[in-house]
Amino acid sequence: MSMSVEDCARSRQGFPRPVPDTPTNVLQQFQLQGKVAVVTGAADGIGLSVAEAFAEAGAHVALWYNSNEAAVEQSVRIAEENGIKTAAFKVDVSDSSQVQKNIIKVLDTFGKIDIFVANAGMGISEPILEQSLEVYRKQMSVNVDGVVFCAKFAGQVFQKQGFGNLIITSSMSGHIVNVPVDQPVYNATKAFVTHFGKCLAREWREFARVNIVSPGFFDTKMGAGDSNINEVYRMSALGRQGHVKEVKGLYLFLASDASSYMTGSDVIIDGGYVLP
Ligand SMILES: NC(=O)c1ccc[n+]([C@@H]2O[C@H](COP(=O)([O-])OP(=O)(O)OC[C@H]3O[C@@H](n4cnc5c(N)ncnc54)[C@H](OP(=O)(O)O)[C@@H]3O)[C@@H](O)[C@H]2O)c1
């Protein structure tokens, strides 16, 4: 039942909350000096680009990877190029104990976590009638369980610290039935994490912000393949896939004080794919 006008007129203790003490200069708002960020799926693709963006803005970065050992070299290069601290951690996000242990390792190495980007994912493009239950479970274990485990254990740290910022990489496929390849389980995993992130924005309102990025096709290992590349060019209003350098600004915005009044938002960055 909604509240009456009289109920609504009653002031609530502690409100309005204070405006955060952030810079007024917009370029200063984008700075991440002294912040510590964790990025999952950081060896390549969108995650690597996000790790670079944060380091370029002054943050120390923990690069989480699963199988791609290139993360170790990338971590060293990013630290040298930007004069910040980095470390690479091998973590299978579908294994809750690995996630939990490595959050503690990040705290041991960096002392805190300001920003956590739950970006790791896998894309299995199969119709459900052709998909084995084992493959279905694998898809769910990375895209859904992986995000839930990262959020749960990073969220515990945020709650204890009294601050934090979670960014989830979802997909436009959580909004649309992506065409032309049938991939219902992948699409549904992304719908899950988008809604999950919005729910966390409320649950964690006293200590952390949570936002979601929903990319369209980006030219990475998970981008368009031979079977759909022509349709991707046709569907995207900009007529191409995104380059990973084109997501850096959005993740930096969400990670920084420039977005201090944003939580629970889901930002589509897709070259206009979902417009029609
Ligand atoms: N590219 C696109 O068109 C597009 C569109 C919408 C959404 N996305 C989303 O963007 C995110 C990043 O994908 P991307 O395009 O950058 O492709 P990518 O380069 O293939 O990145 C996927 C990353 O996920 C990691 N990963 C996979 N399974 C994992 C596991 N069990 N534990 C930990 N990490 C695991 C991989 O790590 P290793 O390589 O170390 O195994 C890899 O770094 C994904 O969540 C994807 O769904 C991509």
Automatic annotation (TrEMBL):
The answer to whether the entry has keyword Oxidoreductase is yes
Query: What are the GO BP annotations of this UniProt entry?
Result: mannitol metabolic process
Gene3D superfamilies in alphabetical order: NAD(P)-binding Rossmann-like Domain (3.40.50.720)
Q: Which UniProt keywords apply?
A: NADP, Oxidoreductase
Q: Where is this region: Disordered?
A: 1-21
Any single GO molecular-function term of the entry would be: oxidoreductase activity, acting on NAD(P)H, oxygen as acceptor
Which family, according to the similarity comment?
A: Belongs to the short-chain dehydrogenases/reductases (SDR) family.
* Protein name as annotated: Short-chain dehydrogenase
The organism named in the record is Moelleriella libera RCEF 2490
